[in-house]
Amino acid sequence: MIERIDTGARSSKVVKHNGVAYITGQVAEGANITEQTKACLAKLEAELLKAGSSPEKMLRATIWLKDMSDFAAMNLVWNAWVPEGHAPARACGQVRLAREELLIEIIVDAAYD
Asked: How buried is residue 62: exposed, middle or buried, by Cβ count under 10 Å (0-12/13-18/19+)?
């Protein structure tokens, strides 16, 4: 069975199938990478909870940065947020994001109960 949560015309915020919750990419406003990363992670955690999951159950994360010079600052926030011993498989790369002011987008797949 496939379950979709908060489905719109273009996408669903969460799609659940076979024990995995696929969370749509999270972006956020903020003056710098630290603020945007914190806001993205707060939104991501809310979506994980809607899916019956949590940061401890993350399987994979994909992080897109507007500029790789923000990598170290983003990692400081990420490392503080990820529960110790529960780091997911992760990829991070540089891309052109949907809006000029966006510095980061985070996409996560996670197990759920």
From this structure: middle
Q: Cα separation of 58 and 47, whole Å?
A: 12
Predicted pLDDT of residue 113: 87
Which neighbouring-strand residues pair with 108?
A: 23, 61
**What distance in Å separates the CA atoms of residue 113 and residue 20, rounded to the nearest whole number?**
9
Angle at 80 between CA 98 and CA 104, to 5 degrees: 5
pLDDT at 29 over 90: yes
CA distance 58 to 21: 9
What pLDDT was estimated at residue 111? 98
Which structure tokens are listed for 7?
Answer: 């489905």
Given the structure tokens 């990420």, which residue do they identify? 78
